[in-house]
Amino acid sequence: MARYTGSVCRLCRREGVKLFLKGERCYGPKCAVGKRPTPPGEHGQTRQRRQSEYGLQLREKQKVRRVYGVMETQFRRYFAKAERQHGITGENLLTTIERRLDNVVYRAGFGTSRNHARQLVRHGHILVNGKKVNIPSYLVEVNDVITIREKSAETEYFKAMREGTGKVLPKWLVIDAPNLKVTVAAMPQRDDVDLTVQEHLIVELYSR
Questions:
Q1: Strand, helix or coil at 56?
Q2: Strands across the sheet with 126-128, in order?
Q3: CB-based contact 82:98 (threshold 8 Å)
Q4: Confidence class of residue 152 from pLDDT cuts 50, 70 and 90?
Q5: Strand pairing of 181-184 and 173-176?
Q6: CB half-sphere exposure, 143, CA atoms < 13 A
Q7: Global pTM value
Q8: Of 16, 83, 88, 176, which residue is 20 to 30 A from 203 by alpha carbon distance?
Q9: Distance between CA 31 and CA 69 in Å, rounded?
């Protein structure tokens, strides 16, 4: 499967905001956006032109794609799914992507970043309702229970989490830290997506 293998700090600089793609590093002084707030490339220091309407729409779409680590083809499938659902298409899009298993693992604090959470899923450390699921794009449902594989739970990394990850969970997830278990209590809503994005611009982009 295709995936981005370049510098993730470059992506943050391109969007001009922190996308929190490197976990704790993004909160410290080594964050690339803080040190070099200009776009990447040899012309990053030059004065930026005013963005066109299309440019603004594209940047919003790229921002969401990069935060969740989703490639263009898959993102289009999410958009098509959101269009078929009742409600506001833009909100449907964000809440659908929020249900990805790798995102839930990250939200629960089991992964330091979404990329790290994706690796945990890929390597078979995560169980959904007692069954191993190694597909990061798997969409969780209400009452799904996400746990750590028994053998993996004995490693020092996961043992340290039994006292709690210290992370504030969105209200649609309930965690049982001593048992390393997360339950999906409800479907995520737009307010649960802590991403500053104007999703209506994405809808306008795909409606061209």
A1: helix
A2: 131-132, 126-128, 145-148, 181-184, 173-176
A3: no
A4: very high
A5: antiparallel
A6: 0
A7: 0.80
A8: 16
A9: 19
